[in-house]
Amino acid sequence: MDKSMLGDLDALPEEDKMRMAAMIDQLQIRDSLRMYNSLVERCFTDCVDTFRRKTLDKQEESCVRRCAEKFLKHSMRVGMRFAELNQGVATPD
What we know:
- The chain has two helices and no strands.
- It has 93 residues and is mainly α.
- The protein has a single domain, classed as Orthogonal Bundle (Helix Hairpins), CATH 1.10.287.810.
- Helix 1 runs antiparallel to helix 2.
- The longest helix has 34 residues, at 14-47.
- It is elongated.
- 1% of the residues are buried.
């Protein structure tokens, strides 16, 4: 976990800091799993048409690869934009 996320929690007792860090870690894991599941569902739905074989054919494989790349690039861009907006909202101490 990124320690900067705890911000101004220095006044909290150590036990509360540890509990807060564990909660943040759990939220990050949950969000990562959600993003992964969304990626799999979207790309599978868009790219896989039939179940003729155990493996994907070349067209399906290419589609899945493009879909995953677009999804991840979009997610990264949204994350960067969110970080930019958060920096602009930060209040000086």
